[in-house]
C-alpha cells in the first residue's frame, strides 16, 4: 500500500471513530437509567393499587349499606295501648307518692302531738307529786296541831274539858277523846252530860267497829 492510500484510509477511519466517541458521550449512564426505571415501576404499582382499592370499594359499597342502616339510630314508636298503660302506671305512681307524703305528714303531726302529751303528763305528774307533798305536810301539821291541843286538854281539869266538849260536835270531840290517855279521857267522860257522853261513845264505837279484828 502506498503512503497516499494509507493517509486516505486513516482519514476515512477518523470520522468513524469520532462518531463512536460522540455516541458514547450521548448515552446516559447506567445508574440514571436504573433510577428512572424504578420510578416508572413504582408509579405503575401505585396506579394499580389505587385502581384496585376503588374497585373493591365499589364492590363492597352495597354490602356496607345494611350495616350503616343498622348502626343508624332508629325510632321505635310504641303502640297506643302501651302508651295508655304507661300513662296509667305513671298516674298510679303519682297517687302512691301523694298518699305516702300524706302519711308522712300525719305521722309527723302524731309524733309532735305525742311529744306534747308526754310533756303535759310529765308536768301533771310533777304537779301531782308536789300537791301530795303539800297535802302530806298539811296533814302532818294538822296532826301535830291536834296532838298538841290534845296534850293541852290532858293538862286541864277534866270538868273544864267536859264543858268544852259539850259544845263541840260529837265526832270532833270523839277525835280528841280517842287521842287522850285513858285516865284523862275517863275524867272528861265522867264530867259530860249523859246525852253528850252517849253521842261521843257511839262515834268511838263506830270507829272501832271498822277496825279489822283479825
Automatic annotation (TrEMBL):
<keyword id="KW-0969">Cilium</keyword>
<protein>
    <submittedName>
        <fullName>Flagellar motility protein MotE (MotC chaperone)</fullName>
    </submittedName>
</protein>
<keyword id="KW-0966">Cell projection</keyword>
<keyword id="KW-0282">Flagellum</keyword>
<feature type="region of interest" description="Disordered">
    <location>
        <begin position="1"/>
        <end position="29"/>
    </location>
</feature>
<feature type="compositionally biased region" description="Basic and acidic residues">
    <location>
        <begin position="1"/>
        <end position="12"/>
    </location>
</feature>
Amino acid at each position: 500500500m502506498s503512503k497516499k492510500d494509507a493517509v486516505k484510509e486513516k482519514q476515512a477511519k477518523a470520522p468513524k471513530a469520532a462518531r463512536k466517541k460522540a455516541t458514547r458521550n450521548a448515552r446516559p449512564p447506567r445508574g440514571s437509567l436504573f433510577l428512572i426505571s424504578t420510578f416508572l415501576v413504582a408509579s405503575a404499582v401505585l396506579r394499580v393499587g389505587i385502581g384496585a382499592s376503588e374497585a373493591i370499594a365499589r364492590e363492597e359499597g352495597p354490602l356496607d349499606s345494611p350495616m350503616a342502616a343498622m348502626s343508624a339510630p332508629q325510632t321505635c314508636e310504641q303502640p297506643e295501648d302501651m302508651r295508655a298503660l304507661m300513662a296509667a302506671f305513671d298516674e298510679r305512681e303519682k297517687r302512691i307518692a301523694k298518699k305516702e307524703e300524706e302519711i308522712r305528714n300525719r305521722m309527723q303531726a302524731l309524733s309532735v302531738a305525742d311529744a306534747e302529751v308526754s310533756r303535759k303528763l310529765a308536768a301533771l305528774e310533777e304537779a301531782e307529786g308536789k300537791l301530795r307533798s303539800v297535802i302530806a305536810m298539811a296533814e302532818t301539821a294538822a296532826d301535830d296541831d291536834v296532838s298538841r291541843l290534845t296534850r293541852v286538854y290532858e293538862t286541864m281539869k277534866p270538868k273544864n274539858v267536859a264543858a268544852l266538849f259539850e259544845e263541840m260536835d260529837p265526832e270532833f270531840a270523839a277525835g280528841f277523846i280517842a287521842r287522850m290517855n285513858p285516865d284523862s279521857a275517863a275524867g272528861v267522860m265522867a264530867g259530860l252530860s249523859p246525852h253528850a257522853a252517849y253521842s261521843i261513845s257511839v262515834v268511838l264505837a263506830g270507829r272501832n267497829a271498822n277496825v279489822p279484828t283479825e
